[in-house]
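help with these tokens:
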Amino acid sequence: SLFIPRDVDEEILLLLLLGQTSTLNEAVLDWQPEHEGQRERSHQAAYNILALLSIFLSRKQAFHIIADSYEQALRFSFEHFQTWFNYGLSLISSGQSFRAYLILKECLRMQPKNLQVYLQLAKIIFEYIYDFPSLFETFPSTVQDGQTLYQQQYYLNQHEQ
């Protein structure tokens, strides 16, 4: 049978899903140093398609599809923080808070000074998980550590602009 899109939205979704499938199938998974450039280009192509797909699907509130798409992209996004962080955010939006908690803990391992990750983890713990002892294990132990983290994040934000 032949699929014919009924409207522009279905056509856009079809093209984005075809693009995603194409980039995922052509992804370079070889971790040898001589393939690093190809691996980075394939990751960037897949990430660009994922960004467009996320924008389109978030308008339709199809967060579970966004989460599935990011999960597929993780196989070649081993240490790419932004892909992992967006996957965690899509899991939060799709109501999978415990999985989001685990993914954001991994993001915290990758970037331990990223304040956004701490804030998202706190939100999940307070609103969904209610595991307050893990809250104290996750966050800086003293007020001074928290202030240092905030100042470093503020400094980074000022210099990115």
In short: The radius of gyration is 18 Å. Residues 5 and 11 are 5 Å apart (CA to CA).
